[in-house]
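Form P-L/3: holo structure prediction, ligand zinc ion.
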Amino acid sequence: MKIICIGRNYAEHAKELGNEIPDEPVIFMKPKSAVLQPNNPFYYPEFTNELHYECELVLRVSKNGRYIQERNAGNYYNAITVGIDFTARDIQENCKKKGLPWEKAKSFDNSAVVGKWVDLTPEINKKNISFHFNKNGETVQKGNSENMIFSFNSIIAHVSKYFSINIGDLIFTGTPAGVGETIVGDKLEAFLEGSSLLQLEIK
Ligand code: ZN
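OUTPUT (holo model):
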């Protein structure tokens, strides 16, 4: 099982970090060990002084494939939730400056948090799924799949040119504007279409 993540998939977020709007999806990965297991606590990592939350829509892969056509890509995932792509922003900035890979900043243990899964039924319009994210009860991020630069299906078509996707893989589809710092004691909560699917306290 692997976790495929898309960076800079919302124009407003790319701008807030001073990045260009990409002309193809920015891809990075997290290993299986990055998943925070249900009911486990999240501890602030000791190696960073600037931990950021990035709330994202997350897809669960339901079929194995590679070289998937965009028009067929909808058959390859069957569940969605909200998740947090935890990022050690100080380390990431340092890596970016030096042109180094991001794994230390993005792929550490428990850096991938996922909420309760929702089945993607045909009635759900995948191009209009809203989500939001609260820090200590205040909404700090708001997004909708309609504002993604690369749609779910185009992400899968692009990613599967390079990597096979397999049942159980997760795809983090990028974060909207409003990313920011989180500290010990913060209570984080993520919502899909208004339903709370993820609650987490930073310990
Ligand atoms: Zn992200």
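COMMENT: The domain at 3-201 is CATH 3.90.850.10 (Fumarylacetoacetate hydrolase; domain 2).
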